[in-house]
Amino acid sequence: MKISEASKASGVSARSLRYYEDEGLIVPGRSGNGYRDYCTSTIDRVLVIRSLLESGLPVRLIREVLPHLTDAPDGEPGTVCAEFLHEVRDYRDRLAARIAELSAQRSALDAFLLEARPPKSPATA
């Protein structure tokens, strides 16, 4: 299918599809005239990429672990390899540490704002 059809089928803009290709996340086929040709398996991969991006994973991590996503040998869909799960847990833990740091900074600013008094204006002095 052409890029416009792939865009509709995946819910991802044509621009995003080109970006995924530029980043090495997908490799669409090419027709005789050079146009991109998206197959069903590429659309399925785009849906996985989109889901991972919506989960907050960076493209760098998705690029590293996407080849390791696999179907379970018994055919159970949604199973992923242990390496990917480890990478996602590490990313989640780093994100949690950043959130804790930002929360502490926000608390410090809240405390400052509670204690700070604006200067008196000349009219009220």
TrEMBL record:
<keyword id="KW-0678">Repressor</keyword>
<dbReference type="InterPro" id="IPR047057">
    <property type="entry name" value="MerR_fam"/>
</dbReference>
<dbReference type="InterPro" id="IPR000551">
    <property type="entry name" value="MerR-type_HTH_dom"/>
</dbReference>
<dbReference type="Pfam" id="PF13411">
    <property type="entry name" value="MerR_1"/>
</dbReference>
<dbReference type="InterPro" id="IPR009061">
    <property type="entry name" value="DNA-bd_dom_put_sf"/>
</dbReference>
<keyword id="KW-0238">DNA-binding</keyword>
<protein>
    <submittedName>
        <fullName>MerR family transcriptional regulator</fullName>
    </submittedName>
</protein>
<keyword id="KW-0805">Transcription regulation</keyword>
<keyword id="KW-0804">Transcription</keyword>
<feature type="domain" description="HTH merR-type">
    <location>
        <begin position="1"/>
        <end position="68"/>
    </location>
</feature>
